[in-house]
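_Per-residue structure_
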Amino acid sequence: MQMEAGEDKENEAPAGRKKDTQPRFYSIFYRKAGGQVETRGEVSPAQGTGPPARPASKSTRASALAGRQTGDGLEQLVIDAGQRQFGVITCSTCAVVYTIGDPEDEALHARHHTGYLGALAFPGWKREREVGHYMDGRVVMVTPRDAAHAWRKVDSVLRLVDAELGFVGVGVRNKEQSKVFFYVVERQIVGCLVAEPVTQGFAVLPRDDSTAVRCDTAARPCVAGVSRVWVHRDYRRRRLATRLLEAMRNHFALTPLGWPDVAFSDPTPDGLQFAAGATGSQQFLVYNQ
């Protein structure tokens, strides 16, 4: 009993020593070397009462994270606190995939989203060619004789269109003879069609059980080639692509073009279905651009 009392006295803090009034912070996700997670009653060894440590650099944090990821994979890196949106999502406007709550991801998405909307903005031009007017929008045509600002808008829009369709560095190959058609809704471009001169195309043959597309080896003469057709995801299934195609047939040449005069370039599966529906035939013309 005397030894225990002596030990208690030794453990008592001296009367003159000030109590440690600096608050202690408890690490929720700190993992010990042995792999056990601390409880809320335990203080992290990394958290002392000394001066605050300098924030770690990005490279230091990245290397530390890489080191933690080599364990059992039980690290919780994002807190679910009942947010309305949580985790990885896809923007319905610009189609960018990013993580809600990640500052770097959100900043990248904000920059891309702003550029996307800026590229599709269309306040109107003093000299513009309106070749189609509908209840929900209108079709504007850009020709080789138009001003430089019109073709700069074409280039900015096609950068987004090509990225979505999977083209790399295509743009408009022959601006001296090509025409571009925009579908405009409330000062925003929501559809685009690029037409270029083509002298010959090849008829699509009826498809068999395979998924490959077969074409006739005999070339057929034609006048116009549809290089690309694009409609914004929020405006699809509204016949906007059909209206763009009709505007192209009526205004690409001096006289309206028939379907035998039009060819489609390297159509995707969706493009094949669209071309067949628009032309009313499974044997429409295609060409390789």
Remarks:
- The mean pLDDT is 75.
- The longest helix spans residues 103-120.
- Residues 84-120 form one domain.
